[in-house]
Design brief:
Elements: H1 46-60, H2 66-89, E1 124-126, E2 135-137, H3 138-149, E3 153-156, H4 163-174, H5 184-207, H6 222-235, E4 240-245, H7 250-256, H8 262-269, E5 291-297, E6 300-306, H9 316-330, E7 340-347, H10 348-353, H11 355-361, E8 375-380, H12 389-392, E9 409-413, H13 417-434, E10 438-443, H14 461-469, H15 473-484, H16 491-510, H17 534-539, H18 547-558, H19 568-583, H20 589-602, E11 606-611, E12 626-627, E13 634-635, E14 645-650, H21 656-668, E15 672-677, H22 688-695, H23 698-702, E16 709-713, H24 728-733, E17 741-743, H25 748-760, E18 767-771, E19 797-798, E20 811-815, H26 819-829, E21 835-840, E22 842-844, H27 848-857, E23 863-871, H28 877-890, E24 899-903, H29 914-928, E25 938-940
Parallel strand pairs: 4-6, 4-7, 7-8, 8-10, 9-10, 11-14, 11-15, 15-16, 16-18, 17-18, 20-21, 20-23, 23-24
Antiparallel strand pairs: 1-2, 3-9, 5-6, 12-13, 17-22, 19-21, 24-25
Helix pairs in contact: 1-2, 2-3, 5-6, 5-15, 5-16, 6-13, 8-16, 9-21, 18-19, 18-20, 20-25, 21-22, 26-29, 27-28
Function: E1 component of the 2-oxoglutarate dehydrogenase (OGDH) complex which catalyzes the decarboxylation of 2-oxoglutarate, the first step in the conversion of 2-oxoglutarate to succinyl-CoA and CO(2).
EC number: 1.2.4.2
Keywords: Oxidoreductase, Thiamine pyrophosphate
C-alpha cells in the first residue's frame, strides 16, 4: 500500500529536487473543497432529497403520493442528520472509562428525541446505504449507531476535511465485517499477551519491593495492541519500527514487546550495569534505557528500536521522528514512507501539557521533516502524577491537540483488549494508506501510585477506592472468553502459572549474568569507535582538498542556469565569488562553508542543514537556494553534485522540536553531516532540554554517539541582549569527559576544515560552533585559496595576523571569536610591537598542549590577558582561567596566571543601546592591550 495518491503531503517526490511553486503554497487540506454531501451525511436540499427518496421508493416497490413523499424525504433528511451527529459526536457517549467515574451523559442531539423521532422507533426511512441499510426503521438505525459509535471505541474523524480519508475510516468502522472481530486463536493470543504484561509487573513488585518501576498496571491492554502494530504493520510493508516513550510501562514494553531478556532487566534491577564495566560512562536508570531487536510475525521480520530518553517526558518525540526520517532515507523510503514506522507512546497529562507534542505534530506534513505518519498511543491513566485532568488541560480529551493536523483519534476502553487491539489494527492500516499521523487514546488507570512508593489516596481517595476493588484486565477478559466458549475455566490460571515459572528461571539466571559487549557501534555505525586518545585523534586528520575539486566546486557555486532569473543582488554576490576563485583571494565565510558542503557531498557524504532561515541565511550570507524572480522555482547548486546528497530546509519556527529531530537524524546516520542552525544563537535557549539531556550527556548515559553540529550566531555588535550571545558559557559548563566540542572560529578556512574534520574522523562527537555575524563580511576575516588545499587543516589555536617574534612578546592577549580583529586593529593603530594576539579557536577539548608549546617560545613574556566581549560571568573566562594557567605551568611559566579584561558581571548578556555598546567595546579592547580605557561596566584585573 502507499500514499502516492494522497495530496496532503506536499513532500511526495521532493527528494528528486527542491520544492517548486510559489512561496504561498499551503498543505492541500487548507484549500480543499470538501464534498460532504456525497455520503448523504449532510442534509440535502429538500428538492434533491425528494428525488433521491422517490427513486429509492420506486426501486423498492413503495407507492408514495406527494404528501407521503414529502414526509419520507423529510424523515430521511432528519435521519441523515442523526447519522451525521453520531459520526461527529458519538464518541462523547462512548463507554471509555474502565472505572466508570467519568460520567458521560448522552447529549440530547444523540437521542431520537433530539431529532424529532421520539416514539417512532418503527418508522421506516431511507438512508442510502448507511450501515448497509437502504430502507430501515429508526429503531434499527439508532441501535446500529449506538452500538458502533458509543461502544468501547469512540472515533473522532469528522474534523478531517479529506473526503477519501473520512470515508476510509467510516467504512471500516461501520461495515459489519470490519468491526471488532478476532478468531478464537487471536483472542487467546490477546489474553496471553495481557497475562504476560500483568504477571511481569506483579513479579517485579514482589521481587523488588518499593523499587521504582513505573508499572503498566491497569494499562496492560497496550501489550497485545503493540504486537498488533508489528503484525499488521509487517503485512502492510513495515520493516522497521522506532519507538519513543517515557517511564510508564517502559520496562513492560522492553520485555514483552521488544523482547529484551528478562534476566537482563532483573540484572539491572539488582544494581547491575547494562554494559561491560570497561566501557565507562555514567549509565542511567533502567526505565530510561533503550534497546533494539527483531521480531517475526507470520514469516515477516520487523526490526525494532526503543530510543533511550531522559525524564523530560516528551523530549524523545522529535528524536524518534528524526531517526525515522534518517532510516527512511537510508532505506530509500522517502517517497512511500512504508517501511519505517515511528510509534510514540505518551502519557495523557504529558500529551496535553507538553508543547513539544505540538511541535512534533506540526512536522507531519512539512517537507524535510515528514515521516509519512506517526502512530501516537496515549496511555490515559486519567491522572498526571497527582494532578487530575481538570487541572491538567482545558479540553475534553488529552488528544485534542492532534486535531490541529487533522489526525483521526480513536478513544478506547483499556479494559477491552480486543477493542484496543482493533484500534491499533485500524491505525496502522490508515497510516500505511495515507501517510498521516493517527492517535489512539486508551482510557485506563494506574493501579498504584506514580512510582509504586507513592500513596495515591493522599490526593485521589475516591478514584483509588474504586481502583482497589476493580478487577484486573485479564480477569475481565478471561471471564468473557469463558462465556464465549473460547477458553475453558482455569485456562488463564494455567497461563499465569506457566509464565511465572519462566520468570523465576530468568530471575535465577540473572544472578550470573554479565553483559559481554556494549551496544553501540553496530549496523551503519560499523567502523566507528570511541577515540582512545582524544588529543591525537583530533589532530591527525587530513581535511584539505585538491585544486581540481576546488576549481570544480567554484564552477558549481557560481554557474547560473539559463532558465533562472536571479535577484540582482544575488548576481553581485555570485560575481564576487567568481572573483574569489579567479584571484585565489578574499574567500568569505559563506563560500568556505559551501566548499566544505560541496566537497563532502562529492566524497559521498550526506549533508543536511536545517534552521529557520537556512536556505538564504539569517544575514543574507549563504544563498544555498536560488529563487527565480519570475515564477519562484528554486535552484540549489549543491544538489547537482554527484555521489552524496545535499539538503537544506527552512524549518518550522521551533527550536526544541527541530533540534531534537536533527539529533535523532544524526543518531541514525553517521555518514551525513547533520547541522542545526539557530536564527540567532540565543534561540538555542528554547532547545535547552535537548542540549542538556541528549547532546551533552547521551553518550555517557546511553552509549549513543552523535555527530550533530550546532551553528549558533554569536557576537557583540550592539544588537541588544537577545541577539548578542549564544550563551557560550552554558555549553562550556556542560563540557567533560570528551563529550562535545565547542568552537569559536575566526577564519573561513578554519570553518571549512572543522566541518570536514567532523566527517573524516572515525568517531562522532557533537560540535557546537559560535558562528559569526559581522565577520561574515569583515574585510580581515578572509581566507586564500591555498588555505583550503595542500596540507592545511583545522587550527585549534590561530596566531596573530601580524608576524611578531615570539621572543619580543611581553604581553599575550588570548581571546576567542570576533574580538580578535578589534584587538589586532587597535594594537596596530597604537603601534604596539610587544603585544601578540592569539585566538583560541577550539575551547573544548581545550588545546592545552599547542598553547603550552607556543607559550614556551615566548621567553620574555610578562603577562597573559584573557579578553572577551561577554560579561565576566558569561563567555569563556571561568572555563579557560585554570586551563590557561595549566598550559603556562607546562610551558615552564609556573605562577603566571591570566588576568581578565572585558565587561563586568551582568544579569543581562548585553546592553540594549548601540552607543553604550560601542563605548564598552572600545574600552575593553584598550584595557586588554594595556592602553588607557574606561567605560561603565568594563573592568580589568590586569596590573
Amino acid at each position: 500500500m502507499g500514499n502516492e495518491s494522497h495530496d496532503f503531503l506536499p513532500e511526495l517526490g521532493d527528494q528528486e529536487g527542491p520544492q517548486q511553486g510559489p512561496s504561498w503554497s499551503n498543505p492541500a487540506w487548507l484549500t480543499e473543497v470538501v464534498d460532504s454531501s456525497a455520503d448523504l451525511t449532510a442534509a440535502l436540499d429538500p428538492t434533491q432529497m425528494r428525488v433521491v427518496v422517490a427513486k429509492a421508493a420506486e426501486k423498492a416497490g413503495k407507492q408514495l403520493d406527494d404528501k407521503a413523499l414529502e414526509k419520507a424525504s423529510d424523515d430521511s433528511n432528519r435521519a441523515m442528520m442523526l447519522v451525521r451527529t453520531f459520526r461527529v459526536r458519538g464518541h462523547l457517549a462512548a463507554n471509555l472509562d474502565p472505572l466508570g467515574l467519568s460520567k458521560r451523559e448522552i447529549p440530547e442531539d444523540l437521542t431520537l428525541k433530539g431529532h424529532g423521532f421520539e416514539g417512532e422507533e418503527d418508522l421506516e426511512v431511507y438512508v442510502g446505504g448507511v450501515f448497509g441499510f437502504g430502507w430501515v426503521t429508526i429503531g434499527e438505525l439508532y441501535d446500529a449507531l449506538r452500538h458502533t459509535y458509543c461502544g468501547n471505541v469512540g472515533l473522532e474523524y469528522m474534523h478531517i476535511s479529506d473526503t477519501v480519508e473520512r470515508r476510509f475510516l467510516q467504512e471500516r468502522f461501520e461495515t459489519p465485517e470490519e468491526t471488532i472481530q478476532f478468531t478464537d486463536e487471536g483472542k487467546r493470543a490477546i489474553l496471553a499477551a495481557v497475562i504476560r504484561g500483568e504477571q511481569y509487573e506483579s513479579f517485579l513488585g514482589k521481587k523488588y519491593v518499593g523499587t521504582k518501576r513505573f508499572g503498566l498496571d491497569g494499562g496492560e491492554s497496550m501489550i497485545p495492541a503493540l504486537e498488533a502494530v508489528i503484525k499488521y504493520g509487517g503485512q502492510q510493508g513495515v520493516r522497521e519500527i522506532i519507538y519513543g516513550m517515557a517511564h510508564r510501562g517502559r520496562l513492560n514494553v522492553l520485555a514483552n514487546v521488544m523482547g529484551k531478556p528478562y534476566k537482563v532487566i532483573f540484572h539491572e534491577f539488582s544494581g547491575g550495569s547494562a554494559n561491560p564495566e570497561d566501557v565507562g560512562g555514567s549509565g542511567d536508570v533502567k526505565y530510561h534505557l533503550g534497546t533494539s531487536t527483531d521480531r517475526e510475525f507470520d514469516g515477516i521480520d520487523v526490526h525494532m528500536s526503543l530510543v533511550p530518553n531522559p525524564s523530560h517526558l516528551e523530549a524523545v518525540d522529535p528524536v524518534v521522528l528524526g531517526k525515522a526520517r534518517a532510516q527512511q532515507a537510508i532505506r530509500d523510503d522517502l517517497k512511500q514512507h512504508e517501511q519505517v514506522l515511528p510509534v510514540l507512546l505518551h502519557g495523557d497529562a504529558a500529551f496535553a501539557g507538553q508543547g513539544i507534542v505540538w511541535e512534533c505534530l506540526g512536522f507531519s506534513g512539512v517537507r524535510g521533516y515528514n515521516t509519512g505518519g506517526c502512530l501516537h498511543f496515549v496511555i490515559n491513566n486519567q491522572i498526571g502524577f497527582t494532578t487530575s485532568p481538570q487541572f491538567a488541560r482545558s479540553s475534553p480529551y488529552p488528544s485534542d491537540v492532534a486535531k490541529g493536523v487533522q489526525a483521526p483519534i480513536l478513544h478506547v476502553n483499556g479494559d477491552d483488549p480486543e477493542a484496543v487491539t482493533f484500534a491499533c489494527k485500524l491505525a496502522i492500516e490508515y497510516r500505511q494508506t495515507f501517510g498521516r499521523d493517527i492517535v489512539i487514546d486508551m482510557w485506563c488507570y494506574r493501579r498504584f501510585g506514580h512510582n509504586e512508593g507513592d500513596e495515591p489516596k493522599f490526593t485521589q481517595p475516591l478514584m483509588y477506592d474504586e481502583i482497589r476493588q476493580h478487577p484486573k484486565v485479564s480477569e475481565l477478559y478471561s471471564k468473557r472468553l469463558e462465556e464465549e466458549g473460547v477458553i475453558e475455566k482455569g485456562y488463564a490460571d494455567g497461563l499465569c502459572a506457566e509464565f511465572t515459572a519462566h520468570l523465576e528461571k530468568e530471575f535465577a539466571a540473572a544472578k550470573d549474568y554479565k553483559p559481554d559487549q556494549a551496544d553501540w557501534f553496530g549496523g551503519r555505525w560499523s567502523g566507528m569507535n570511541k577515540p582512545a586518545d582524544p588529543e591525537s585523534a583530533r589532530r591527525n586528520v587530513e581535511t584539505a582538498i585538491d585544486k581540481k575539486l576546488f576549481d570544480s566546486l567554484g564552477r558549481t557555486l557560481t554557474g547560473i542556469p539559463g532558465d533562472l532569473t536571479i535577484h540582482k543582488t544575488l548576481g553581485r554576490v555570485l560575481k564576487a565569488k567568481e572573483e574569489m576563485f579567479s584571484s585565489g583571494e578574499g574567500f568569505d565565510w559563506a563560500t568556505a562553508e559551501a566548499l566544505a558542503f560541496g566537497s563532502l557531498v562529492t566524497e559521498g557524504f550526506g549533508v543536511r542543514l536545517s534552521g529557520q532561515d537556512s536556505g538564504r541565511g539569517t544575514f543574507s550570507q549563504r544563498h544555498a537556494v536560488w529563487i527565480d524572480q519570475k515564477d519562484e522555482h528554486k535552484y540549489i547548486p549543491l544538489t547537482t553534485l554527484p555521489h552524496g546528497k545535499f539538503e537544506v530546509y527552512d524549518s518550522p519556527l521551533s527550536e526544541y522540536g527541530v533540534l531534537g529531530f536533527e539529533y535523532g537524524f544524526a543518531m541514525a546516520d553517521p555518514k551525513s553531516l547533520v547541522m542545526w542552525e539557530a536564527q540567532f544563537g540565543d534561540f538555542a535557549n528554547g532547545a535547552q532540554i535537548v542540549i542538556d539531556q541528549f547532546i551533552a550527556s547521551g553518550e555517557a548515559k546511553w552509549l549513543r554517539a552523535n555527530g550533530l553540529v550546532l551553528l549558533l550566531p554569536h557576537g557583540y555588535e550592539g544588537q541588544g541582549p537577545e541577539h548578542s550571545s549564544a550563551r557560550l558559557e552554558r555549553f562550556l559548563q556542560l563540557c567533560a569527559n570528551d563529550n562535545i566540542q565547542v568552537c569559536n572560529i575566526t577564519s573561513p578556512a578554519n570553518y571549512f576544515h572543522v566541518l570536514r574534520r567532523q566527517m573524516l574522523r572515525n568517531f562522532r562527537k557533537p560540535l557546537v560552533i559560535m558562528t559569526p555575524k559581522s565577520l561574515l563580511r569583515h574585510p580581515l576575516a578572509k581566507s586564500e585559496a591555498s588555505e583550503f588545499q595542500g596540507d592545511n587543516h583545522f587550527m585549534r589555536i590561530k596566531s596573530d595576523m601580524k608576524e611578531i617574534d615570539d621572543e619580543k612578546v611581553k604581553r599575550l592577549v588570548l581571546c576567542s571569536g570576533k574580538v580578535a580583529y578589534d584587538l589586532m586593529q587597535r594594537r596596530d593603530e597604537a603601534e604596539l610591537e610587544d603585544v601578540s594576539i592569539v585566538r583560541i579557536e577550539q575551547l573544548y577539548p581545550f588545546p592545552g598542549e599547542p598553547l603550552a608549546v607556543r607559550l614556551e617560545r615566548m621567553k620574555n613574556l610578562e603577562q597573559i590577558v584573557w579578553c572577551q566581549e561577554e560579561p565576566k560571568n558569561n563567555g569563556a573566562w571561568f572555563f579557560v582561567d585554570r586551563l590557561i594557567e595549566e598550559a603556562a605551568e607546562a610551558a615552564g611559566k609556573s605562577g603566571m596566571r591570566p588576568c581578565y579584561a572585558g565587561r563586568e558581571v551582568a544579569a543581562s548578556p548585553a546592553t540594549g543601546y548601540a552607543s553604550r555598546h560601542q563605548v564598552q567595546q572600545e574600552a575593553l579592547v584598550n584595557i586588554a592591550l594595556g592602553l588607557n580605557g574606561q567605560a561603565p561596566n568594563v573592568r580589568s584585573d590586569c596590573k
